[in-house]
Amino acid sequence: MTALQPICIPKSMQIAITGRCNLRCKYCFYADEMVALKDLPTETWLNFFKQLGELGIMRVTFTGGEAFTRPDLFELIDGVIENRMRYSILSNGTLITEKVLEQFQLGKRRLRLDYIQISIDGSTADVHNQSRPKSFEHAIRGMQLLRQAGFRTVVRVTINRHNFQDLENIAGLLLDEMGLPSFGTNEAMPMGAGCENQPEITLTADEQVIAMGILARLEERYPGRITASAGPQSKRKHFAEMEHARQTGERPTQWQMGCLSGCGGVFYNMDVLHDGTIVPCHVLTGVSLGNITTDSLEEVWLKHPHMVALRERRLTPMQEVLGCQDCEWAPYCNGGCPGLAYSLTGDYNRADSHDCYRRFLFQTGAINVVRS
Fold first, then answer.
1. 3-class secondary structure, 277
2. Can you give the pLDDT at residue 142?
3. Residue 79's pLDDT band (cuts 50, 70, 90)
4. For residue 269, is pLDDT > 50?
5. What pTM was computed for the model?
6. Half-sphere exposure at residue 151, Cβ-oriented, CA atoms within 13 angstroms
7. Do 252 and 241 meet the contact criterion of CB atoms below 8 Å apart?
8. What is the largest CA-CA distance in the chain?
9. How far is the C-alpha of 233 from the C-alpha of 159, rounded, in Å?
10. Rounded to whole angstroms, how far apart are CA atoms 137 and 134?
11. pLDDT the model gives residue 369
12. CA 116, CA 146: separation in Å to the nearest integer?
């Protein structure tokens, strides 16, 4: 069993500066939180950025809601820059205009910007708008403006039941027509609005198999240009590594096998919701660690019981995890996402059943993911 790595102050933080959004995406995992919590005022965020700078945080990612709905966005950006940090923005792209982009030319705003990420969920309005209503033309326009102005533009495709059959067309649009060097994928998860709309939006196991096959073909056509940290592409690779380890005894070097080690984010990152609530990450919004208005970020990071427990969970053998004791794949598994496990069971020390290989094989009737 691998010992825990030393804990240093995180180098980056993801901050939801607003719960407001101009869209109502069918799978938004942050939708429930938008209703109940209030945005912090400008001055509170600026004081917080000063604390981050003093702690040595190097980067922040602005998210929401939709970051560009916030009238003081560029004042907040300047606050980050004044405290010697870099930043990036996650956006739906629909509010990006020529006038907005002019604001980035002032001071060091452009110099300190790492990237702006735009969400595109279809090759046409008919597909995209099923997941992200009435937004395709505006999102494409925002992406085009960013590209034309030379901004580093990142695109994320959230794979779901509305668009998995459109993946080849999406790749053609983004990589061939738009000329992007790459794009990333993840998937709609059964949490937040995605839980409410799960029958409509979340891929079934058989649809996962189809999506895996499409993405495998696209990888051959566009080597290294479609990336994933979650979703069918990532899942197929992970399942194949489990198969390989079981057949050969060779263990993967990228992750720790046989323990609840599916996420290492708590060793290098921590997030803040738009009312100042500190959370381990944005898919663990139900696990409050305190609030930036009342609690020491450094104390929370180093000593909060939830942070300690989330780090120590990777020392738990899969064969001791409730529901996994008799699983033949337990010695080769890492338990998946603790955020999704918490959403599904109320316990982040359980395995994420949404990404369970045994469940996947049973539901699809496949022999293994490599042959399926």
1. strand
2. 98
3. very high
4. yes
5. 0.92
6. 30
7. yes
8. 60
9. 10
10. 8
11. 63
12. 8
